[in-house]
Amino acid sequence: MTRDVKAKPHILAVDLGGTHIRIACVDVGGNIKKLCKLKLEHKAPEYVLSLIAEEAPKLSESTGMPFGVCGLGVAAMLRGQTVAIAPNLGWREEEFGQKLEKRLGLPTFLFNDLSTAAWGEFSLGAAQGFRDSLTVFIGSGVGSALISRRRLIEGAKGMAGELGHMKLSGGHEALCGCGQQGCLEAYAGGKNLKERMAEQGLEGGAAELEAAAQQGNPVAQKLYAFVCEQLGLAVANAVTLLNPGVLVLGGGMLVHCPGIYSAIEASVRQRASSAAQDGLAIRQASLGDNSGLLGAALLAAERSKLGT
Q: Model's pTM, two decimal places?
Protein backbone atom coordinates (compact mmCIF):
# COMPACT_ATOMS: atom_id res chain seq x y z
CA MET A 1 0.00 0.00 0.00
CA THR A 2 1.32 3.45 -0.87
CA ARG A 3 1.59 5.80 2.10
CA ASP A 4 -0.12 9.19 1.74
CA VAL A 5 2.64 11.77 1.31
CA LYS A 6 2.38 15.41 0.28
CA ALA A 7 4.35 16.43 -2.80
CA LYS A 8 7.86 17.30 -1.59
CA PRO A 9 11.40 16.91 -2.89
CA HIS A 10 12.39 13.26 -2.90
CA ILE A 11 15.45 11.44 -1.60
CA LEU A 12 18.22 9.93 -3.67
CA ALA A 13 18.90 6.69 -1.78
CA VAL A 14 22.02 4.63 -2.43
CA ASP A 15 22.95 1.18 -1.13
CA LEU A 16 26.62 0.57 -1.93
CA GLY A 17 27.77 -3.03 -1.71
CA GLY A 18 30.94 -4.82 -2.63
CA THR A 19 29.72 -6.05 -6.03
CA HIS A 20 26.56 -4.05 -6.80
CA ILE A 21 25.10 -0.62 -6.17
CA ARG A 22 21.36 0.07 -5.81
CA ILE A 23 20.12 3.60 -6.43
CA ALA A 24 16.53 4.71 -5.89
CA CYS A 25 14.14 7.63 -5.83
CA VAL A 26 12.29 7.50 -2.50
CA ASP A 27 9.67 9.84 -1.09
CA VAL A 28 9.62 11.06 2.52
CA GLY A 29 7.11 8.37 3.46
CA GLY A 30 9.40 5.54 2.40
CA ASN A 31 7.82 4.72 -0.96
CA ILE A 32 10.32 3.63 -3.60
CA LYS A 33 9.31 5.39 -6.82
CA LYS A 34 11.99 3.88 -9.01
CA LEU A 35 15.05 1.71 -8.39
CA CYS A 36 18.00 0.57 -10.45
CA LYS A 37 20.63 -2.03 -9.60
CA LEU A 38 24.03 -1.86 -11.27
CA LYS A 39 27.05 -4.10 -11.15
CA LEU A 40 30.26 -2.46 -10.00
CA GLU A 41 32.66 -2.99 -12.87
CA HIS A 42 35.34 -1.26 -10.81
CA LYS A 43 35.66 -0.33 -7.14
CA ALA A 44 37.67 2.85 -7.48
CA PRO A 45 35.96 5.75 -5.63
CA GLU A 46 35.99 7.95 -8.72
CA TYR A 47 34.17 5.29 -10.74
CA VAL A 48 31.49 4.91 -8.04
CA LEU A 49 31.08 8.69 -7.80
CA SER A 50 30.59 8.93 -11.55
CA LEU A 51 28.07 6.07 -11.53
CA ILE A 52 25.88 7.76 -8.90
CA ALA A 53 26.20 11.17 -10.55
CA GLU A 54 25.13 9.72 -13.91
CA GLU A 55 22.13 7.80 -12.56
CA ALA A 56 20.73 10.52 -10.29
CA PRO A 57 19.43 12.86 -13.04
CA LYS A 58 18.02 9.87 -14.95
CA LEU A 59 15.98 8.84 -11.91
CA SER A 60 14.81 12.40 -11.31
CA GLU A 61 13.77 12.83 -14.92
CA SER A 62 11.99 9.48 -15.18
CA THR A 63 9.97 10.07 -12.00
CA GLY A 64 9.47 13.80 -12.51
CA MET A 65 10.64 14.35 -8.95
CA PRO A 66 13.48 16.65 -7.83
CA PHE A 67 15.90 15.43 -5.20
CA GLY A 68 16.32 17.37 -1.98
CA VAL A 69 18.93 15.20 -0.28
CA CYS A 70 21.04 12.06 -0.76
CA GLY A 71 21.41 9.23 1.76
CA LEU A 72 23.99 6.49 1.20
CA GLY A 73 24.62 3.30 3.14
CA VAL A 74 27.92 1.47 2.79
CA ALA A 75 29.53 -1.51 4.53
CA ALA A 76 32.27 0.50 6.15
CA MET A 77 33.62 2.07 9.29
CA LEU A 78 32.88 5.77 8.90
CA ARG A 79 34.30 8.90 10.42
CA GLY A 80 31.69 11.50 9.63
CA GLN A 81 31.56 11.76 5.83
CA THR A 82 34.85 9.91 5.46
CA VAL A 83 35.05 6.17 4.77
CA ALA A 84 37.74 5.10 7.24
CA ILE A 85 37.74 1.42 6.26
CA ALA A 86 35.58 -0.34 3.66
CA PRO A 87 36.99 -3.89 3.43
CA ASN A 88 34.80 -5.07 0.54
CA LEU A 89 35.69 -2.02 -1.55
CA GLY A 90 39.33 -1.78 -0.53
CA TRP A 91 38.93 1.85 0.56
CA ARG A 92 40.92 3.52 3.32
CA GLU A 93 40.46 7.12 4.50
CA GLU A 94 38.37 8.05 1.47
CA GLU A 95 36.52 11.39 1.72
CA PHE A 96 33.63 9.98 -0.24
CA GLY A 97 30.76 11.89 1.31
CA GLN A 98 32.32 15.28 0.67
CA LYS A 99 33.13 14.36 -2.93
CA LEU A 100 29.65 12.99 -3.63
CA GLU A 101 27.96 16.06 -2.17
CA LYS A 102 30.05 18.28 -4.43
CA ARG A 103 29.32 16.09 -7.46
CA LEU A 104 25.55 15.97 -6.85
CA GLY A 105 25.02 19.48 -5.53
CA LEU A 106 22.83 17.98 -2.78
CA PRO A 107 23.18 17.67 0.99
CA THR A 108 24.64 14.18 1.32
CA PHE A 109 24.74 11.87 4.33
CA LEU A 110 26.83 8.71 4.64
CA PHE A 111 25.79 5.92 6.98
CA ASN A 112 27.06 2.49 7.89
CA ASP A 113 24.94 -0.11 6.07
CA LEU A 114 23.76 -1.68 9.32
CA SER A 115 22.62 1.70 10.59
CA THR A 116 20.50 2.12 7.47
CA ALA A 117 19.13 -1.44 7.68
CA ALA A 118 18.26 -0.94 11.34
CA TRP A 119 16.54 2.38 10.63
CA GLY A 120 14.60 0.86 7.76
CA GLU A 121 13.34 -2.00 9.93
CA PHE A 122 12.63 0.41 12.80
CA SER A 123 10.65 2.79 10.60
CA LEU A 124 8.80 0.43 8.27
CA GLY A 125 9.67 -3.17 9.13
CA ALA A 126 10.10 -5.70 11.90
CA ALA A 127 10.95 -3.17 14.64
CA GLN A 128 7.97 -0.89 14.04
CA GLY A 129 6.23 0.04 17.27
CA PHE A 130 9.32 -0.39 19.45
CA ARG A 131 11.35 2.39 21.03
CA ASP A 132 14.58 0.40 21.43
CA SER A 133 15.90 -2.10 18.90
CA LEU A 134 19.04 -4.10 18.21
CA THR A 135 19.43 -5.18 14.59
CA VAL A 136 21.97 -7.84 13.65
CA PHE A 137 22.59 -8.76 10.02
CA ILE A 138 24.81 -11.64 9.00
CA GLY A 139 25.67 -11.86 5.33
CA SER A 140 29.05 -11.43 3.72
CA GLY A 141 29.97 -9.71 6.99
CA VAL A 142 28.60 -9.42 10.53
CA GLY A 143 27.14 -6.12 11.70
CA SER A 144 24.73 -4.58 14.13
CA ALA A 145 23.11 -1.29 15.02
CA LEU A 146 21.30 -0.01 18.10
CA ILE A 147 18.37 2.38 18.25
CA SER A 148 17.64 3.70 21.74
CA ARG A 149 14.67 5.89 22.58
CA ARG A 150 14.04 6.22 18.85
CA ARG A 151 17.55 7.55 18.18
CA LEU A 152 20.33 5.83 16.27
CA ILE A 153 23.35 5.31 18.54
CA GLU A 154 26.53 6.05 16.57
CA GLY A 155 29.15 6.41 19.30
CA ALA A 156 31.80 9.07 19.90
CA LYS A 157 33.48 8.52 16.52
CA GLY A 158 30.63 6.91 14.59
CA MET A 159 31.94 3.37 15.16
CA ALA A 160 29.20 1.98 17.42
CA GLY A 161 27.65 -1.34 16.44
CA GLU A 162 30.68 -3.10 14.99
CA LEU A 163 29.67 -6.50 16.36
CA GLY A 164 31.62 -8.29 13.66
CA HIS A 165 34.86 -6.78 14.86
CA MET A 166 34.59 -7.97 18.43
CA LYS A 167 37.51 -10.32 19.09
CA LEU A 168 37.30 -14.01 19.82
CA SER A 169 39.36 -15.60 22.58
CA GLY A 170 41.39 -18.79 22.48
CA GLY A 171 44.06 -18.13 19.87
CA HIS A 172 41.75 -17.49 16.89
CA GLU A 173 43.94 -15.33 14.67
CA ALA A 174 42.46 -15.27 11.17
CA LEU A 175 43.02 -11.96 9.39
CA CYS A 176 39.89 -9.84 8.97
CA GLY A 177 39.19 -7.40 6.17
CA CYS A 178 39.48 -4.56 8.69
CA GLY A 179 43.20 -5.35 9.00
CA GLN A 180 43.08 -6.89 12.48
CA GLN A 181 43.15 -10.52 13.57
CA GLY A 182 40.66 -12.65 15.44
CA CYS A 183 37.44 -10.74 14.61
CA LEU A 184 34.11 -12.57 14.74
CA GLU A 185 33.56 -11.60 11.11
CA ALA A 186 36.84 -13.27 10.09
CA TYR A 187 35.25 -16.61 11.03
CA ALA A 188 31.48 -16.19 10.84
CA GLY A 189 30.94 -13.64 8.08
CA GLY A 190 29.86 -15.37 4.87
CA LYS A 191 32.79 -14.16 2.77
CA ASN A 192 35.44 -15.25 5.28
CA LEU A 193 33.56 -18.41 6.20
CA LYS A 194 34.14 -19.67 2.66
CA GLU A 195 37.87 -19.32 3.28
CA ARG A 196 37.65 -21.16 6.60
CA MET A 197 35.73 -23.93 4.84
CA ALA A 198 38.26 -24.17 2.01
CA GLU A 199 41.06 -24.47 4.56
CA GLN A 200 39.36 -27.62 5.82
CA GLY A 201 38.57 -29.08 2.42
CA LEU A 202 34.92 -28.03 2.36
CA GLU A 203 33.29 -26.51 -0.70
CA GLY A 204 30.67 -23.80 -1.01
CA GLY A 205 29.47 -21.31 1.57
CA ALA A 206 27.34 -21.14 4.68
CA ALA A 207 24.32 -22.94 3.21
CA GLU A 208 26.52 -25.83 2.04
CA LEU A 209 28.17 -25.94 5.46
CA GLU A 210 24.83 -26.20 7.21
CA ALA A 211 23.68 -28.95 4.84
CA ALA A 212 26.92 -30.92 5.24
CA ALA A 213 26.78 -30.63 9.02
CA GLN A 214 23.19 -31.82 9.10
CA GLN A 215 24.15 -34.76 6.87
CA GLY A 216 26.79 -35.88 9.38
CA ASN A 217 30.08 -34.66 7.87
CA PRO A 218 32.32 -34.50 10.99
CA VAL A 219 34.57 -31.74 9.62
CA ALA A 220 31.55 -29.64 8.69
CA GLN A 221 29.89 -30.34 12.03
CA LYS A 222 32.86 -29.03 13.97
CA LEU A 223 33.13 -25.79 12.00
CA TYR A 224 29.36 -25.30 11.95
CA ALA A 225 29.14 -25.75 15.72
CA PHE A 226 31.93 -23.20 16.18
CA VAL A 227 30.19 -20.63 13.97
CA CYS A 228 26.83 -21.11 15.70
CA GLU A 229 28.49 -20.91 19.12
CA GLN A 230 30.39 -17.71 18.42
CA LEU A 231 27.51 -15.91 16.71
CA GLY A 232 25.04 -16.98 19.38
CA LEU A 233 27.31 -15.89 22.22
CA ALA A 234 28.07 -12.51 20.62
CA VAL A 235 24.40 -11.68 20.05
CA ALA A 236 23.38 -12.90 23.52
CA ASN A 237 26.04 -10.71 25.13
CA ALA A 238 24.92 -7.74 23.02
CA VAL A 239 21.35 -8.22 24.26
CA THR A 240 22.59 -8.32 27.86
CA LEU A 241 24.66 -5.17 27.35
CA LEU A 242 22.15 -3.12 25.37
CA ASN A 243 18.74 -4.30 26.63
CA PRO A 244 16.70 -3.78 23.42
CA GLY A 245 12.96 -4.18 23.26
CA VAL A 246 13.26 -6.10 20.00
CA LEU A 247 16.09 -8.05 18.40
CA VAL A 248 15.86 -8.05 14.59
CA LEU A 249 17.86 -10.76 12.83
CA GLY A 250 18.52 -10.60 9.09
CA GLY A 251 21.03 -10.84 6.29
CA GLY A 252 21.54 -13.33 3.49
CA MET A 253 23.30 -15.93 5.60
CA LEU A 254 20.44 -16.18 8.07
CA VAL A 255 17.88 -16.29 5.25
CA HIS A 256 19.62 -19.30 3.69
CA CYS A 257 20.70 -20.98 6.94
CA PRO A 258 17.65 -21.43 9.18
CA GLY A 259 19.70 -23.61 11.51
CA ILE A 260 22.09 -20.76 12.29
CA TYR A 261 19.13 -18.41 12.83
CA SER A 262 17.60 -20.89 15.29
CA ALA A 263 20.94 -21.39 17.06
CA ILE A 264 21.31 -17.63 17.62
CA GLU A 265 17.75 -17.32 18.89
CA ALA A 266 18.26 -20.25 21.28
CA SER A 267 21.54 -18.80 22.54
CA VAL A 268 19.89 -15.46 23.31
CA ARG A 269 17.11 -17.17 25.24
CA GLN A 270 19.60 -19.34 27.17
CA ARG A 271 22.48 -16.91 27.74
CA ALA A 272 21.29 -13.31 27.76
CA SER A 273 20.56 -12.09 31.26
CA SER A 274 17.00 -12.79 32.35
CA ALA A 275 16.49 -9.10 33.14
CA ALA A 276 17.65 -7.97 29.68
CA GLN A 277 15.44 -10.41 27.83
CA ASP A 278 12.36 -9.82 29.94
CA GLY A 279 9.74 -8.96 27.32
CA LEU A 280 12.30 -9.16 24.50
CA ALA A 281 10.82 -9.83 21.07
CA ILE A 282 12.96 -11.61 18.47
CA ARG A 283 11.89 -11.01 14.89
CA GLN A 284 13.17 -11.76 11.42
CA ALA A 285 13.94 -8.71 9.28
CA SER A 286 10.97 -8.08 7.00
CA LEU A 287 12.07 -5.59 4.34
CA GLY A 288 14.47 -7.86 2.45
CA ASP A 289 17.01 -6.10 0.24
CA ASN A 290 15.22 -2.78 0.69
CA SER A 291 15.87 -2.29 4.41
CA GLY A 292 19.16 -0.47 3.85
CA LEU A 293 17.90 1.57 0.92
CA LEU A 294 14.82 2.75 2.79
CA GLY A 295 16.80 3.39 5.96
CA ALA A 296 19.34 5.51 4.07
CA ALA A 297 16.51 7.57 2.58
CA LEU A 298 14.62 8.11 5.82
CA LEU A 299 17.74 8.85 7.87
CA ALA A 300 18.88 11.41 5.31
CA ALA A 301 15.41 12.99 5.29
CA GLU A 302 15.47 13.23 9.07
CA ARG A 303 18.98 14.69 9.27
CA SER A 304 18.17 17.28 6.61
CA LYS A 305 14.65 17.99 7.99
CA LEU A 306 13.30 17.27 4.52
CA GLY A 307 10.11 15.74 5.81
CA THR A 308 9.22 18.64 8.12
A: 0.92
Give residue-wise pLDDT tens across range 22-61. 999 999 999 999 999 999 999 999 999 999 999 999 999 9
DSSP the chain: ------S--EEEEEEE-SSEEEEEEE-TTS-EEEEEEEE-S---HHHHHHHHHHHHHHHHHHHT--EEEEEEEESSEEETTEEEEETTTTEEEE-HHHHHHHHHTS-EEEEEHHHHHHHHHHHHSTTTT-SSEEEEEESSSEEEEEEETTEE---TTS-TT-GGGSBPSSS--PBPTTS-BSBHHHHHSHHHHHHHHHHTT--S-HHHHHHHHHTT-HHHHHHHHHHHHHHHHHHHHHHHHH--SEEEEESHHHHH-HHHHHHHHHHHHHHS-TTTTTT-EEEE--STTHHHHHHHHHHHHHHHTTT-
Q: For the residues 263-288, what does the mean pLDDT come to?
A: 97
